[in-house]
Structure formats: structure tokens, C-alpha cells
Write a structure and sequence with these properties.
By secondary structure, the chain is mainly alpha-helical. The chain has nine helices and two strands; from the N terminus they run αββαααααααα. Strands 1-2 form a two-stranded antiparallel ribbon.
């Protein structure tokens, strides 16, 4: 199978799975699953950070949250320990589903393993693709999810989250953050986080 055909097949399969998300959003006049919307944003943000992104990185970006709604946070205990178990389980779930899709599309085990490594964010500081993924995830959070998330989070906790987010990003991701067109309150919170 030609590489372009294989890539398109994998992307179509991931998009099909993500469009099943019961949480719906309007995107360019169409009602689509939230995770399909999110995966498109993450894919675009990944390309904006690295316009020469590897095929593995682009596949990982599209599959990063595949089927996320099937493992809701409410299925895990409240508190930090429950949260960490949920996040760890999600990463493994996403990587497993992505591997199945890629195998079905005809990818070899080396590519599947590389995509899995990116999805799991392994060796973040020494794996440029995993770091680009982390940067893209942080930027999509700040651009799309931050304004709503801050409304249900105390200022102190939000500042702590922003500091952790900043610390996960590379210098390139941090520069991209400073160039974001955030709302007034979001900009104020980022300023407080970076000042401390």
C-alpha cells in the first residue's frame, strides 16, 4: 500500500472513531464529536510547531485522545491518586487503540512503536516528537480549553496548573505561548504564573 494511502486510511479511521464522541460541537457548520474537533486542532497545532513533522508525529497527534470519552474521569476515585490513575490508563488506552488502527492501515511495527512512544510521551526531553506533542497539547489547552477550565478552578490552583504547563514545554512551546491571543483574564493568570 502506498504511504499516502496508508496515512489517509489511518487518519480516516481515527476520525471515524473520534466522531462517535457523544459530546458534540459545531465545526464549520457541521455537528461533530468533540474528540474529532480536538484531534484536528492538535494536528494543526503540531504542524504549526513543526511544518516538517514526521508521519509518526502527525499520526500520534491525530490519535492522542482517540476514544477518550470511553474512559471518563468519574470512573476513577477523586483526588490526585485517582487522577493520576485515570491519566495513566488513558495514555495506555489511546496508545493501544492507535496501534490497532495503524496495524489495520498497514503500518510496520517500528512506526507503530514510535507513535506509541509519542502518545505515551516517553523520554519527553530527549524525544523531539514527544516534546512537540507536549507543546501542542499545552497550546491547544491554553487556546481552547483554558477559558472554560479557569471558571471552575480556583485562582491559586489555576496558577499552579499554568506553572506546571509552562514547565512541560520546550522553549519553542513557551515562545508560542507568549504569542497566543488570550483573553484579558487568561493573560492575567498566565502573567501571575510566570511572575512567581
Amino acid at each position: 500500500m502506498a504511504e499516502a494511502t496508508r496515512f489517509r486510511k489511518a487518519i480516516r479511521s481515527i476520525d471515524f472513531l473520534n466522531d462517535d464522541d457523544p459530546k458534540r460541537v459545531a465545526d464549520e457548520g457541521r455537528d461533530i464529536g468533540y474528540e474529532l474537533y480536538f484531534s484536528r486542532l492538535l494536528f494543526a497545532k503540531t504542524l504549526s510547531l513543526d511544518n516538517d513533522a514526521s508521519e509518526s508525529l502527525l499520526l500520534a497527534a491525530r490519535a492522542q485522545h482517540v476514544g477518550r470519552w470511553k474512559m471518563p474521569r468519574s470512573d476513577f476515585p477523586m483526588g490526585r491518586t485517582g487522577y493520576l490513575k485515570w491519566r495513566s490508563g488513558l495514555k495506555r488506552y489511546h496508545a493501544t487503540v492507535a496501534a490497532e488502527v495503524l496495524e489495520d492501515a498497514g503500518y510496520d511495527s517500528a512506526t507503530i512503536d514510535h507513535v506509541r512512544s509519542i502518545n505515551l510521551k516517553e523520554n519527553l526531553k530527549s524525544n523531539p516528537d514527544a516534546q512537540t506533542m507536549e507543546d501542542a497539547l499545552c497550546l491547544v489547552f491554553l487556546e481552547v480549553q483554558f477559558s472554560e477550565f479557569r471558571l471552575k478552578t480556583s485562582e491559586e490552583k489555576m496558577i499552579s496548573i499554568l506553572r506546571k504547563t509552562w514547565g512541560k514545554m520546550s522553549e519553542r512551546g513557551q515562545k508560542a505561548t507568549l504569542a497566543l491571543d488570550l483573553g484579558e483574564e487568561e493573560s492575567r493568570l498566565v502573567g501571575l504564573a510566570l511572575a512567581g
